[in-house]
Amino acid sequence: MAGPRQSRSFAPAISPGNLMIYQGELFTEWQDSAFLGGLSGENLVRVELDGESAEPAQEWDFGERIREVEEAPDGAVWIATDSGALMELRPDQ
User: How far apart are CA 56 and CA 50, in angstroms?
Assistant: First the structure.
C-alpha cells in the first residue's frame, strides 16, 4: 500500500483557474512544467514537475485575474485575463 502523498499549497492562495502542462518546443527548459493561472493571486505560476514532487519555479504578476493559460500551436504560451486581454509569452529574441 502506498503512503500518503505530500500536497503543495500556496500562501497566500492563488486560486488556480486552470492548469496547462507545457509540451512545446519554444521553451525547451519548460517542457513538462505545469502552468497555473491565478484568480485571486492575479499571477501565472510555473511549477516544475519531477515524478511525485512539484516545486514552484517562476511567477509572473499580472495585476488581474488569469482566466486561461494555453499552449499555442507554435509553443508560445497564451494567457487570457478577466478584462479580456490576451497576452503571449515568447522567448527573448
Answer: 12
Residue 41's beta-bridge partner residues? none
Quick one: pLDDT at residue 13? Answer: 78
In sequence order, what are the beta bridge partners of 54?
49
Does residue 62 carry a pLDDT above 80?
yes
Task: Give the per-residue pLDDT at 16.
Answer: 87
77: Cβ–Cβ under 8 A, 6 or more apart, which residues? Answer: 20, 22, 24, 27, 35, 69, 70, 71, 88, 89
Q: At 58, list the grid cell.
A: 517562476
Q: What is d(CA 17, CA 15) in angstroms, rounded to the nearest whole number?
A: 6
